Amino acid sequence: MADDDLDVMAALLGDPEVMRYYPRPKTRDEAQGWIDWNKRNYAEHGFGLWIVETTSGEFVGDCGLTVQRVDGVDDVEVGYHVRADLQGRGYATEAAAACRDHAAALGVRRLIAVIAPENRPSQRVAEKIGLSFERRGRSHGRDIVLYASALPVA
Length: 154
Ligand SMILES: CC(C)(COP(=O)(O)OP(=O)(O)OC[C@H]1O[C@@H](n2cnc3c(N)ncnc32)[C@H](O)[C@@H]1OP(=O)(O)O)[C@@H](O)C(=O)NCCC(=O)NCCS
Prior knowledge:
33% of the residues lie in helices and 32% in strands. The protein is an alpha+beta fold. A hairpin with a 5-residue loop joins strand 1 and strand 2 (59-70). Coenzyme A binds at residues 18, 21, 80-82, 87-93, 115, 119-122, 124-125.
């Protein structure tokens, strides 16, 4: 993810359908902040959310690894957002499975997904890449469900 992804990222994160489980869609400035956050993630952790494209280079969304704090504990999360018109084709599952495997290769021992309780599509993606419901919790002041899995030692 780089500054020249701002147009596609602002369209993705500004879409009320994509952001229906968030407090509200993001503004263009907030989308730039999202890109800046991921550039910091790459520098600090060596991973972050990455751009997802088809093999022909069409923008699909983002997916990747970030550090998230749930009830005061930091873990590596796999996260994903897919363009509304391209959902339901398996893109999130394919991208998230690749990120899970990359996390294991980096030596990450535990992978989580922090999901709104009513966000069943996201929970299905977590389940399909091998994460299981662990417990309810709080993150960024909101109720969440925590999906998690131990990762194999690389
Ligand atoms: C979550 C999201 C990334 C999934 O992307 P996707 O490319 O459509 O995902 P996939 O096609 O790989 O799989 C989606 C799964 O959810 C299921 N699903 C979709 N809508 C559903 C619903 N209303 N109830 C239950 N399951 C649902 C699909 O059937 C599929 O599971 P299946 O293969 O068992 O049938 C996409 O819905 C999205 O961008 N949502 C908005 C952003 C978001 O909430 N991100 C996650 C934040 S935690």
